[in-house]
Write a sequence for this structure.
């Protein structure tokens, strides 16, 4: 019986991110990740394309946490999101003025939310990574609505200065692709990455 109990215990999953949205997505999917913040300096890394940048940042976050003793034996998932607009990678805005300018440039247009995912199995060191892309169609909020949204503080803490599940939801006309990816983590992509490492996502359900 002891062997059966041990076998039934799911692998530890560690989220290398302080994002409450990513944590909520994983919990809603039946997972119970621990959170260890990576502390990676996102501004110190660069890449040729926004999609590649998102992947490199995710790999850096996952690697930083996987190297810590408290993550030993766990599956570590690192994610990072950027909004691709006019070929540029837009992360969190620098300040309220930047967030206001972003929204005035985004309204009525479409951008691509790129989220890099990296999964490391610290038990054997194997690593897989990929980037998921979702097109976001922005509405046309008025200047007054943009001002009110920026004053709420929400856009200052999220990639692209918007969220799909927060105060800016009324200003987003639609998306083409995985909504979870826009929120911060693509569960279908995570399932595929886990499968690449020989882990069924259903085995991680709690």
């Amino acid at each position: 019986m002891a062997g059966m109990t041990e076998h039934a215990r799911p692998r530890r999953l560690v989220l290398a991110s302080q994002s409450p949205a990513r944590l909520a997505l994983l919990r809603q999917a039946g997972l119970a990740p621990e959170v260890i913040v990576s502390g990676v300096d996102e501004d110190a890394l660069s890449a040729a394309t926004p999609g590649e940048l998102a992947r490199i940042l995710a790999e850096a976050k996952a690697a930083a946490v996987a190297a810590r003793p408290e993550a030993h034996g766990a599956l570590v998932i690192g994610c990072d999101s950027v909004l691709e607009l006019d070929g540029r990678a837009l992360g969190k805005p620098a300040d309220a003025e930047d967030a206001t300018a972003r929204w005035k440039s985004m309204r009525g247009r479409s951008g691509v939310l790129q989220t890099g995912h990296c999964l490391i199995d610290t038990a054997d060191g194997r690593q897989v990574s990929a980037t998921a892309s979702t097109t976001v169609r922005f509405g046309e909020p008025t200047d007054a609505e943009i001002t009110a949204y920026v004053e709420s503080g929400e856009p200052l803490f999220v990639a692209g200065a918007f969220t799909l599940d927060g105060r800016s939801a009324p200003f987003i006309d639609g998306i083409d692709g995985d909504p979870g990816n826009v929120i911060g983590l693509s569960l279908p992509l995570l399932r595929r990455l886990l499968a690449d490492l020989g882990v069924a996502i259903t085995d991680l359900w709690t």
